[in-house]
């Protein structure tokens, strides 16, 4: 039985995680219509499938996001966009405003516009940095049942900060 032709919008779709999701969706659901929004154009190591539409934009711009949602009319949104400071900056506060603007405000914009647009499914991605900063060892069993806690990286804090918005946007 063929998949219904769902329209899927992937934010951050040219990054490491986002592009892997795009490729997996293209392979497993060939009838899906895929659209990627990202500030960065696709690079050769994260090349997008041929039938993927790419739109360059900033998720902190509600006007640009609204236009993208009007164009794509997504049934499903996969939100992978975000900024992770380089290792040297990870525990610094120098980029705090930029990280919060993209990871917190950008996520809120994605949620608000998804809700207004009647999106059926919103998938939010993050990492183990939301609950633990020790990335020297693997943490394969971290899941949604772990308690959320503010940690010392601005990335982890900004991602924890978005979770209540994600949960409150279910209605």
Proper CATH architecture: 3-Layer(aba) Sandwich
> Which spans have pLDDT < 50 for at least 5 consecutive residues?
none
Strand order of the largest sheet: 3-2-1-4-5
By CATH, the topology is Rossmann fold
* Overall shape: globular
Query: Can you write the helix and strand succession as a string?
Result: EHEEHEHEH
Cα-to-Cα separation, first versus last residue: 31 Å
- In total, the number of strands is 5
> What proportion strand?
5-15%
Mean pLDDT: 83
Structural class: alpha/beta
Number of helices: 4
How much helical structure, as a percent, in the residues? 25-40%
CATH 4th-level superfamily = NAD(P)-binding Rossmann-like Domain
Indicate how many domains the architecture comprises.
1
**Cα-atom Rg, whole angstroms?**
16 Å
InterPro entries: Epimerase_deHydtase, NAD(P)-bd_dom_sf
Family: Belongs to the NAD(P)-dependent epimerase/dehydratase family.
Pfam family, one: Epimerase
Protein name: NAD-dependent epimerase/dehydratase domain-containing protein
């Amino acid at each position: 039985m063929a998949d219904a032709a769902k329209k899927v919008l992937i934010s951050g779709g040219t990054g490491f995680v986002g592009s892997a999701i795009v490729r997996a969706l293209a392979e497993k659901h060939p009838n899906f219509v895929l659209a990627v929004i990202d500030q960065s154009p696709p690079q050769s190591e994260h090349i997008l499938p041929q039938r993927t539409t790419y739109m360059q934009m900033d998720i902190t711009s509600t006007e640009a996001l609204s236009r993208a949602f009007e164009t794509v009319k997504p049934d499903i949104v996969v939100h992978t966009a975000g900024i992770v400071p380089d290792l040297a900056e990870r525990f610094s506060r120098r980029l705090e405003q930029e990280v919060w603007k993209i990871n917190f405000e950008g996520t809120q914009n994605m949620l608000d516009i998804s809700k207004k647009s009647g999106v059926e499914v919103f998938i939010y991605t993050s990492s183990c940095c939301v609950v633990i900063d020790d990335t020297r060892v693997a943490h394969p069993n971290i899941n949604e049942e772990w308690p959320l806690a503010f940690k010392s990286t601005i990335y982890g804090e900004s991602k924890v900060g978005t979770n209540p918005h994600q949960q409150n946007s279910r209605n």
